[in-house]
Amino acid sequence: MEKIKNIKFMPVFILGFHRSGTTILYKMLGETKLFNKFTMYHLLNYDELIYNHIHNLEEKKKKEFNDLLIKKEIKKRKTDEISVSSDYEQEYVYLFLQKNLPVTLSDKNRKLFEDLCKKIIFISGNDKPVLMKNPYDFPNFLYIKKVFPEAKFVFIHRNPLEVISSTMRLWQTRLKNKDEFAVLYSKQYEKAYTNKLFLFLMRLYYVSPFPFGIFEVILRCKKGSNYYLKNIKNLSKGDYVSIKYEDLCQNPNKVIGEILGFLNLKSDMDFSCFVKPRKLNLIPEVRFLKKFIYNFLKPYFEYFSYNI
Fold first, then answer.
1. DSSP H helical segments within the chain, as ranges?
2. Looking at residue 107, which CATH number applies to its domain?
3. What is the number of domains present in the chain?
4. 1 in a domain, yes or no?
5. Is 51 domain-assigned?
6. What separation in angstroms does the CA of 55 have from each of 37, 48, 59, 151?
């Protein structure tokens, strides 16, 4: 750990609702090779990262994990068909959960996050910005800016109806059948399938006809949207860029170019093959509640010109 003691880093946070497009945006920006990113390899080998690097064990460890994926016949995420490997872009919340720490950045896990960024810089051998994402920290950016004054933010927004519908679909996918990929990085998810009562209650909450869990998802969106609208004015224009998922799908090269320009970076990559415009079929519960959702989140709908 002495080797990383004096390492400096600049974090760039991708923040938005769960299922707002943070994963595909992370993947697209990561493909530019302009950033250091947090991957499955880093998550699963956190305590050994420096040792593995010094002793040239990184490729061996990555191959072992990739071979495991092949053995389990795991090629893509069940939820959105994104390819997975040891280099899959991961959320730092899963490192917090491994250590039984809060899911949002706080004084309790700040040191762990700092060490993670320093380790990534050390083993990468460069000083590129560290690109991170964690939807739980969407309503937490003022704290992040306070403790990391040099931090930059990339906010991504999506129609709340689609966010809520997509979130419920994810729960349904994960709870109806065991997701073998999620088991590899989430001990909480794995435990759910070893406790039949807990699994039954989770299915009742999220998967049953008109699941009550949808209101918890709506409330989470309300909290995040209120926080953003109330506090975004407290960030300077040089601290953040805000995009819409719909624009990213419609014109990916333009949107990625704007993000990179904001960060004083440039790439000639063509991103048109990464994401395409698509219309998500809302689940019946969201269609039934869409007027309620619109009125409940009306300031956010109006701010970003979303409709129902």
1. 22-30, 40-44, 49-54, 58-71, 93-98, 110-124, 141-147, 160-176, 180-185, 187-192, 196-206, 213-231, 245-250, 252-262, 284-296, 298-303
2. 3.40.50.300
3. 1
4. no
5. yes
6. 21, 10, 11, 32
Give pLDDT, residue 233: 97
Whole-number pLDDT of residue 277: 67
> Are residues 157 and 255 in contact, defined by beta-carbon separation less than 8 angstroms?
no
> Which domain covers residue 82, as residue numbers?
9-303
Q: Find out whether 154 and 12 touch, Cβ atoms under 8 Å.
A: yes
Residue pLDDT, tens place only, 130-160: 999 999 999 999 999 999 999 999 999 999 9
| Contacts of range 300-305, beta carbons closer than 8 Å, 24 or more positions apart | 300/160, 300/221, 300/225, 300/226, 300/228, 300/229, 301/160, 303/229, 304/157, 304/244
Report the distance separating Cα 116 and Cα 139, nearest Å. Answer: 22
In a domain? residue 218: yes
> Letter for the amino acid at 15?
L
Burial class from Cβ neighbours inside 10 Å (0-12, 13-18, 19+) for residue 209 reads: exposed
In a domain, 272, yes or no: yes
pTM, full prediction? 0.94
